Amino acid sequence: xxxxxxxxGPNLNMLGLREPEVxxxxxxxxxxxxxxxxxxxxxxxxxxxxxxxxxxxxxxxQAARGVFDGLIINAAAYTHTSVAIHDALKCLDVPIIxxxxxxxxxxxxxxxxxxxxxxAAEVYAGHGAKGYVLGLEKLKELL
Length: 143
Ligand code: DQA
What we know:
Elements: E1 2-8, H1 20-23, H2 28-41, E2 44-50, H3 54-63, E3 70-74, H4 83-90, E4 96-100, E5 122-125, H5 130-142
Parallel strand pairs: 1-2, 1-3, 3-4, 4-5
Helix pairs in contact: 2-5, 3-4
Bound molecules: 1,3,4-trihydroxy-5-OXO-cyclohexanecarboxylic acid (DQA).
C-alpha cells in the first residue's frame, strides 16, 4: 500500500474560525477525515500533520525520505517565503503535490510567488478541501 504524507503549514489549525469567506467553514479535522476516507477508497495510507513552525515542517520533509511514496503539501504562508522548505523538498525523490484552499494567484501580490510550485508535479488551488482529494487521486495515478 502506497504511503502519502500530507503536510499543512501555519494557521491552517485555525480553519473553521479563520476567514471563512476565504477558506470555507471546514475545520482541519474535517479535511483530515476527508483525506482518510479518500485514501481508504484509493487503497492508500495517509499521515496528516500540521505545524506552525517552519523548522518542524523541514524536519518532517527530511524524515519522509524512504518512508513515504508521495507528499501533499499546503505550506500556507511559507509557500510564499520559505527557501528552507523549497530546499528540503528538493532532497525528496517522490512526487509532490501543492494544495491551497484558496487561489493565491488571485489574491494579494505577495501570494503570487510559490517556492513549492517549481518542484510540484501538480498544483490544486482554489478548490477548497477538494484540492486534497484531487491531490490524492493524482498521486494514485502517478504512483
Ligand atoms: C493558503 C494560501 C496562503 O496564501 C495562505 O497564507 C494560507 C492558506 C490556502 O490554502 O489557500 O495560509 O495556503
